[in-house]
Amino acid sequence: MTDITKGAIAPPRSFLSQDAVQLFYRLLAAFLICAVLAVLSDSFLSLGNILNVLRQASLTFFIASGLTLVVLTAGLDLSVGANVALSACLAGTVIHKTGSPALGILTGLACGGIVGLLNGVMVTALRIPSFIATYGMLWVLNGLTYWYMAGETLHGFPAGFRQIGSGYLFGLPIPVYLLLVFLGIGTFFAQRTIWGQEIYAIGANPVAARLSGIPVARRLLLVYAVSGTMAGLASIIFLSRLNSAEADIGESLTLPAIAAVLIGGTSLFGGVGTVFGTFIGALILTLVLNGMNLLSVSANWQPLVTGVIVILAVWLDMKTRRRAQ
Question: Of 5, 217, 270, 283, which one has the greatest count of Cβ atoms within 10 A?
């Protein structure tokens, strides 16, 4: 690849017909789930429940959007949940110590980005497989967070800061506005910039990408840093939403984020998927869990149902793409 300029705008990335079909099927699945839940529960179509679904989907999307870029390169970041926990605890501490939400937000974003960058260094410089590198980072972050918090819980943050996660603007939760902003940024970056197209190329064939002049190591550092920074952003949203932080705040966040990416159609083999698809995946996952809560299904069944949905989504995706080849 020649004459690649930093941050250059690229023509829209062309989609294979099966990619468009897969996106249509996911939108159709979300619509059908809504229709079924509307019939089974009188509460589903209430304004409060719809806003709650959008808020919860946005929280999952913040983590999953950065993770999507990593998976597009045929990598994986298993440390995002632990990253959220450490970033939230550090951000909460800074807010308590200084009284400045702005410094707390910067701390959370910086912590998330640094963790992501370290993941990228392990994958590129040390050549550790992403699964092993980020799995090890998960345990390192968990250990640091539990040591740092020492069993304590931070709570009681300024009202203005809490508006980020629990406030409303013109009747919509503020996280929904943030979702729209980052959905637009992520889609534009992946589909309309040279860097985004290089990420797809790396996932499709890293050797060919390197031979064509793409700086593979730098792009991998970029996607892991972005994934970490989005985890840092998610930590701020969770912190302001819950109004508290403790060491185990991120333990339940990694698998739903991965599920949203896979349900949204991003291939674990790299090179296939979209940020918008991840948003649909987060929405589908949230709708299913919300419906189970409305129908009083035991929470013990929710992980099982999530696992079945992920397996079916990946299986159908692989089957459809194999048939299209």
Answer: 283
CA-to-CA distance for 77 and 221, rounded, in angstroms? Answer: 12
Which carries the bigger pLDDT value, residue 9 or residue 218?
A: 218
Which tens digits make up the pLDDT trace of 219-246?
A: 999 999 999 999 999 999 999 999 999 9
Please determine, for residue 12, whether its predicted confidence score (pLDDT) is greater than 90.
Answer: no
The 3-state DSSP class for residue 46 equals: coil
Residue 194's contacts (CB-CB under 8 Å, 6 or more residues apart) are 4, 5, 7, 8, 9, 10
What distance in Å separates the CA atoms of residue 209 and residue 228, rounded to the nearest whole number? 24
For 1-31, what is the HEC assignment?
Answer: CCCCCCCCECCCCCCCHHHHHHHHHHHHHHH
Q: Which long-range contacts (CB under 8 A, 24 or more apart) does 38-45 make?
A: 40/291, 40/294, 40/295, 41/291, 41/294, 41/295, 43/294, 44/290, 44/291, 44/294
CB atoms within 10 A of CB 252: 10
Query: What's the CA dihedral at 76, 256, 236, 121 to 10 degrees?
Result: -10
Copy the structure tokens of residue 108: 């959370």
Tokens standing for 178? 């943030």
pTM recorded for the entire structure: 0.90
Bridge partners for 245 per DSSP: 154
Nearest to 116 by CA among 146, 148, 150, 86: 86
Residue 110 CB coordination number (10 Å): 16
Tell me if 58 sits within 8 A of 178, measured CB to CB.
yes
The CA-based diameter of the chain, rounded to the nearest angstrom, is 58
Q: What distance lies between CA 105 and its chain's CA centroid?
A: 18
The Cα–Cα gap between 130 and 124 comes to 9
Contact 123, 185 (CB under 8 A): no
Give, for 179, the enclosing helix (H) or strand (E). Answer: helix 174-192
